[in-house]
Design brief:
Elements: H1 9-21, H2 27-47, E1 51-61, H3 67-77, E2 82-89, E3 94-104, H4 105-117, E4 121-130
Antiparallel strand pairs: 1-3, 1-4, 2-3
The protein binds nickel (II) ion (NI).
Length: 134
């Protein structure tokens, strides 16, 4: 199928740079692979179960109106599953927040997905490992 889409110029330039570095000849092939990666990552997240401990790394533009308040509100809603938060003022524009999470992955996943949906958030990555007593 053929689709058309609009993207910010900066994002497309960055994507094309990555494709060039990786030796891709075709942007369509690159987009197909990126979509597959996205789907696999989501499925992997969906399949995890039980108690986990991990971190959510979030990069966001702190100039984006409301993003800091939204991020704080969400973290307060999920405070039972958050052990610590570290904030790094990465550049003039971007902040990195590292959220240490622990508990049932249902809630950790919910927290991660809520953050992913926020406008102004550019990157979110959950890394976790099983934490159940053996
Ligand atoms: Ni900051």
């Amino acid at each position: 199928m053929r689709i058309s889409m609009s993207l910010p110029k900066k994002l497309l330039n960055e994507f094309d740079e990555v494709l060039k570095d990786r030796g891709y000849q075709s942007r369509s092939k690159g987009i197909r692979d990126a979509l597959k990666d996205y789907i696999v990552r989501y499925q992997w997240m969906k399949e995890m179960e039980g108690d986990r401990i991990g971190i959510i790394a979030v990069i966001y533009d702190h100039h984006y109106t409301g993003v800091m308040e939204d991020l704080t509100d969400i973290q307060h809603d999920f405070r039972e599953y958050i052990n610590a938060v570290m904030h790094v003022h990465m550049t003039e524009k971007y902040c990195l927040e590292v959220i240490v999470v622990k508990g049932d992955v249902k809630y950790i996943r919910g927290l991660t997905e809520k953050i992913m949906r926020l406008k102004g958030v550019e990157h979110v990555k959950l890394t976790s490992t099983a934490s159940g007593q053996k």
